[in-house]
Every structure is written in structure tokens, then in C-alpha cells.
Amino acid sequence: MADSAQAQKLVYLVTGGCGFLGEHVVRMLLQREPRLGELRVFDLHLGPWLEELKTGPVRVTAIQGDVTQAHEVAAAVAGAHVVIHTAGLVDVFGRASPKTIHEVNVQGTRNVIEACVQTGTRFLVYTSSMEVVGPNTKGHPFYRGNEDTPYEAVHRHPYPCSKALAEWLVLEANGRKVCGGLPLVTCALRPTGIYGEGHQIMRDFYRQGLRLGGRLFRAIPASVEHGRVYVGNVAWMHVLAARELERRAARMGGQVYFCYDGSPYKSYEDFNMEFLGPCGLRLVGTRPLVPYWLLVFLAALNVLLQWLLRPLLLYAPLLNPYTLAMANTTFTVSTDKAQRHFGYEPLFSWEDSRTRTILWVQATGGSAQ
Ligand SMILES: NC(=O)c1ccc[n+]([C@@H]2O[C@H](COP(=O)([O-])OP(=O)(O)OC[C@H]3O[C@@H](n4cnc5c(N)ncnc54)[C@H](O)[C@@H]3O)[C@@H](O)[C@H]2O)c1
Ligand SMILES: CC(C)CCC[C@@H](C)[C@H]1CC[C@H]2[C@@H]3[C@H](O)C=C4C[C@@H](O)CC[C@]4(C)[C@H]3CC[C@]12C
């Protein structure tokens, strides 16, 4: 990425490129990164949709690999100019063990950093999470805060702990000399709850609503705000951050950015209804229909059942004490840091984001896709 950048074609690597966010990052790079010469898509599970991308003008290389395996990561990183590290084990339901979550999210990130250092890759964008900040274990609200808002970030759950540690590793690596002697430039993007085409939990809620005769029952007060951001805008932010990291290294290096757009501030359930409503579902109740103490009890019961059933089957429902606390604690962001630091503006308006998501739920919600 030198001065002859206009002519130079760049090699990008996207880890986790077949995931919900990763696929959008991959497609966004192909559409919006004119300097792209080769796109490497690294994932534990490669999607069949990658095949159709291989016929385009940019060379797309699919790499089946595991971020916990340092040699596989190093081979994929070698010769790349930019790495967008979005691979991660997203598990707040107790599906994976804390050890596995740590291995993928922390050791995997360490492997990516070391591979950059060893092979001379200078630019690394890491997909972090709002959960690096909160909601914390004390349930303190974070109301429309920004990257500088004081907040007691205390975690116990393996997933936020792993994301916080991985983010720290990435930021700490900023400025390290990579092979060839130039400094590594890193930044971390912190999405709030991502929604959009491919969002499995949204589809799960849709299917649950269909099973319940077109109804969902309010469990969380409408006054609790939960931050949400459209996947296309999160992907665009990654692409832009990756592009600008060289030119604005002094400003962006070692920085964190919340991901934001024009999505409205609403409760988790009311926000979902923006899409599920037009798909024919109704949210019953203007106030929670179940008392909070009962939800707490059911969440605790689910933990017990998960533990008891573990030898027989994996019982991992959406409701547990951690997800209940997430849904029931206000956590929203209001910031323009990404705009100030690298000129980010959302690519998709709220209306576009909403329409695209509704069309996706309608098209795939009832099917097995
Ligand atoms: N979904 C959200 O609301 C959200 C919010 C904030 C941050 N994030 C972060 O965004 C990133 C992507 O999340 P997502 O929602 O797209 O999840 P996802 O599960 O859809 O995608 C993660 C991808 O990483 C891959 N992966 C997992 N373990 C791997 C391994 N050992 N080696 C290689 N690849 C591996 C998976 O196969 C998957 O394709 C994660 O780092 C997550 O922590 C997600
Ligand atoms: C109590 C029930 C009625 C509803 C349960 C909803 C629950 C499954 C939802 C609520 C909030 C969701 C999380 C939130 O949007 C942000 C993230 C950050 C990201 O890094 C990973 C996904 C995650 C944890 C969402 C998972 C689903 C949650 C907990």
C-alpha cells in the first residue's frame, strides 16, 4: 500500500468470511474496494455461495482453515496486505465450552497477530463487540454512550471475556514491527447487536412466532433500549476502516470504534417487530406479560436443565441469565468517532436496512435455508 497505490492491486484476507457478518464483508469488498486484486476467504466452514464469486474479475481464494491453528493462519496471511479478522465463536447460550470460546476468540486472534508480524502484513482490522464494554454484570445502563463514556466494564461470561481480551491483544499489537521493519497498524470495531440478511436469531424468533399462531409475547419493558446496527453498514465500516488504515495510521492505529448507523433506539423486542411485524407477527402486550422474577427463575432453570441434560443432549435455549440481562439492560451508542477518524457514513439508510431485512425474513424465514 505505497504511493503507487492507484496502480497497485491489494490482497485482502477475511477470516470468518463465511459467517453472517463475514459474508457481507466479502461481498462489500468485491463491490466497493477498487484496489482489490485478490480476496482470500478463510473459514472453518466454507459456504457454497463462494463458488459464484470466483467467476468475477477479482481472484477469490477460499481457504478452509482454523484460526486456532497457527500454521494455517500464517499460510493464509502470507502475502496479504490487509487482514479483516472477523472469525469468532459467538456463543452466549452455553453451546461451546469456555475453553473452546477462549481458544477460538483469544488464541485465534493471537495467531492472526503473530502471522501478521511474521509475514509482514501491516494492516489489521478486528471485529470486536459492544460486549467488550457492556452491559456489565451489575446491569448498569449505558445510554447512548460513546467510546469515551466512563463505564465499569466487568464481565464474567466467557464470550465477552474472550472478546475483551482479544481486543486488548489487537490494540496492544499496534505499532509492533512486522517482518521488514514497518509498524503494524490495528484498530477494533465494536458492533452492537447486528441485524440484517442472514441473522439467524431473527429467523428463530420469526419461526417461534409462526409456531405460536403469529404472536410473540412481550417479556422486556419497551423502555429498555438495545443497540442495533445493520449488517451492511457494519461491513461497510470494516471495508472503509481497512482502506483508510494506511493513510490515517497515526489517527486510527490502536483505536476502537463503535459501529453505528441510523437504526432507531428501541427495546430488543420492539426492534425485531420492525421486521417481524410486516412479516405478519404481532407482539402481544404493551408491558411484559410475565413478571421479571419469573423470567429470572426460568433463566436459572434453563441453566440447571442444560447442566443436567449435558450427558444426553445439548440443551441451549435463547433464555439464560446472561441473555436476559443483555436484553433487559439499556445499552445504546451515539457517536461520530468513525466519521471523524475515517470519514464513515452509513451506506444504507434505516429505510433501506429495514426493507432489505424484511425481504430476507419473508424469503427465508419459513424455509430451511
Ligand atoms: N452477531 C452480532 O450481533 C455481533 C455483534 C458484535 C460483534 N460480533 C462479532 O462479529 C464477528 C462475526 O460474528 P457473526 O455474527 O457473523 O458470527 P458467525 O458465527 O455467523 O460468524 C463467525 C464465523 O467465524 C467462523 N469461525 C468460527 N470458529 C472458527 C475457527 N476456529 N477458525 C476459522 N473460522 C472460524 C465461523 O465458521 C463463522 O463463519 C464475531 O467476531 C463476533 O464476535 C457479532
Ligand atoms: C429475554 C428474551 C425475551 C429475549 C432474549 C434475547 C437474546 C437472545 C438477545 C438479546 C440481546 C442479544 C445480543 C446482543 O444483540 C448483542 C450481541 C453481541 C454480539 O457480540 C454477539 C451476539 C449478541 C450477544 C446478541 C445475542 C442474542 C441476545 C442475547
UniProtKB/TrEMBL annotation:
Record carries keyword Transmembrane helix: yes
GO cellular component terms attached to this protein's record: endoplasmic reticulum membrane; lipid droplet
Subcellular location as annotated: Endoplasmic reticulum membrane
EC number, as in UniProt: 1.1.1.181
Keywords, in A-Z order: Endoplasmic reticulum, Lipid metabolism, Membrane, NAD, Oxidoreductase, Steroidogenesis, Transmembrane, Transmembrane helix
Molecular function as annotated in GO: cholest-5-ene-3-beta,7-alpha-diol 3-beta-dehydrogenase activity
3-beta hydroxysteroid dehydrogenase/isomerase domain ranges (all copies): 13-283
Reaction equations catalysed: (25R)-cholest-5-en-3beta,7alpha,26-triol + NAD(+) = (25R)-7alpha,26-dihydroxycholest-4-en-3-one + NADH + H(+); 7alpha-hydroxycholesterol + NAD(+) = 7alpha-hydroxycholest-4-en-3-one + NADH + H(+); (24S)-7alpha-dihydroxycholesterol + NAD(+) = (24S)-7alpha,24-dihydroxycholest-4-en-3-one + NADH + H(+); 7alpha,25-dihydroxycholesterol + NAD(+) = 7alpha,25-dihydroxy-4-cholesten-3-one + NADH + H(+)
Major site of localization recorded for this protein: endoplasmic reticulum
GO biological process, one term: B cell chemotaxis
Domain of life: Eukaryota
Chain ranges passing through the membrane: 289-309
Annotated pathway: Lipid metabolism; steroid biosynthesis; Steroid biosynthesis
Pfam families from the UniProt entry: 3Beta_HSD (PF01073)
CDD domains: 3b-HSD_HSDB1_like_SDR_e
Membrane topology type: Multi-pass membrane protein
Top EC class, one word: oxidoreductase
Entry similarity comment: Belongs to the 3-beta-HSD family.
Known role: The 3-beta-HSD enzymatic system plays a crucial role in the biosynthesis of all classes of hormonal steroids. HSD VII is active against four 7-alpha-hydroxylated sterols. Does not metabolize several different C(19/21) steroids as substrates. Involved in bile acid synthesis. Plays a key role in cell positioning and movement in lymphoid tissues by mediating degradation of 7-alpha,25-dihydroxycholesterol (7-alpha,25-OHC): 7-alpha,25-OHC acts as a ligand for the G protein-coupled receptor GPR183/EBI2, a chemotactic receptor for a number of lymphoid cells.
Protein name: 3 beta-hydroxysteroid dehydrogenase type 7
Organism of this sequence: Callithrix jacchus
